[in-house]
Amino acid sequence: MSIGVKTLTRSLWVFHLAGSPCNNCDIEILDLLTPYYDVERFGIVLVGSIRHADVLLLSGAFNRKAVLRVKEVYAQAPKPIVVIAIGGCACTGGIFRHSYNVDGPISKHIPVDAFIPGCPPKPEAMIAAIVKLVKKLRGEK
Amino acid sequence: MEINLKDLLLLVFNVIVFPGVIFTGIAGLVASWIDRKITAKVQMRVGPPFLQPFYDIGKLFVKEICIPVNSSKWLFISAPLIGFTGVVLASVMIWKAMLAQESFTADIIVIIYFLLFPSLGTILGAFASRNPLASVGGSREMKLIISYEVPFILSLLIPVMKAGSIRLYEISLVPHGISSISGFIAMLVGLICLQAKLALVPFDAPEAETELAGGAYIEYSGALLGIYKLTRSMMLFTGPVFLIAVFLGGWDVFSFTGIFTGLLKYIILLTLIVLIRNTAPRFTIEHAVKFFWGPVTVIALFANSLALWFGI
């Protein structure tokens, strides 16, 4: 990976995009950002605009309309950007995978760097995933 | 006018190293770390590590710069640099007035203008990006400037009156903020106006993370956003230093006690600013205008009349 990605791992700014989720994953993501877990220790903060983001956090089963928006947001993001799919729905489609309006898992449309399965995943699982991802980006074992 | 090579080199050194880009930049980033750490402590968190602001800026400088298709490109790129230039020049002028006594008549007015540049850069960038949310942010910033500049300048009149001079060096000789009642009131007014100048909560309506998603900066990415962030950090250092120069008797760096007391003054002002930011909810923009044009201006005028007629 390039030098840009290495400096990225020191300060990950997260943009959270909810694509028609049931909100359980979103609640757990907000839990991750509360003082109890305090991910600002690692330089992780939530930002309001995709232009400021280094991480695109996706949750929910993406339906046909949401997929178009996700593609647009991904194209608008300044590179390098890391994409994380949170929850069973974003990873595989979950229980909605056979729905008429759900357009496959999101990895079909944009490249996803990390999958965090669970319904919803616990904040500890998300921290473990972020640690693994950061190690992978830095090229450590 | 003859240009002396030594003076020219000194000027370049002043702008680039001390007290210009490098010194103010590092001090500003440390100040923004103190801000985030105190915020974390107030919220009972651990908070970011010491080098976190440096990592943030470094990361932003290697990211891609996105320029919106419909934006006016040159203004979009130059707007952050306008603000950056303003804060660097303001810092150089304040420090040179305090240390080298290089102060000319009415330099305090020039500094007031330079301190306005970061806000001006924000407005220009917001309108250049052609994003509706950024336009709302830019127009709020504009209203905020119109509202806080009136009491800010009224509060600066009192040290000018007391010192009988409009040169920053002569004003900074006496701590006007604690030597008289009117000066103390003026210092409080100046502190509140500085809070709005730095666009911190309760006056962060232009940025408004929750409803404007970054507001004026929404379309900025990469190095341009980095320059904005750096400018804001440098304002967090330069703003309180300006108040120290005007109200608290300056910052002497040639003696150990001078450095220590100056640092103490700065830390007290910064802590006050951070605590206000952490304990107050946000004013809507019309409340902010009413607040500054109503009570704050009246208090500033009251302090002015105290100084003018009663001399206290």
> Roughly how many Å apart are the termini of chain B?
44 Å
Strand order of the largest sheet of chain A: 2-1-3-4-5
The share of residues in helices of chain B is over 70%
Largest sheet report of chain B: none
Query: Can you summarize the main beta sheet of chain A?
Result: 5 strands, parallel
Radius of gyration of chain B: 19 Å
Q: On the 0-100 scale, what is the average pLDDT of chain B?
A: 89
Could you state the order of secondary-structure elements of chain B as H and E? HHHHHHHHHHHHH
| Gap from first CA to last CA of chain A | 14 Å
Discrete helix count of chain A: 5
Contiguous helical run count of chain B: 13
The largest interface is: A-B, 21 and 31 residues
DSSP strand count of chain A: 5
Mind telling me the C-alpha Rg of chain A? Answer: 14 Å
**Uncertain spans of chain B, ≥5 residues at pLDDT below 50?**
none
Instruction: Label the structural class of chain A.
Output: alpha/beta
Average pLDDT of chain A works out at: 87
How many β strands of chain B by DSSP? 0
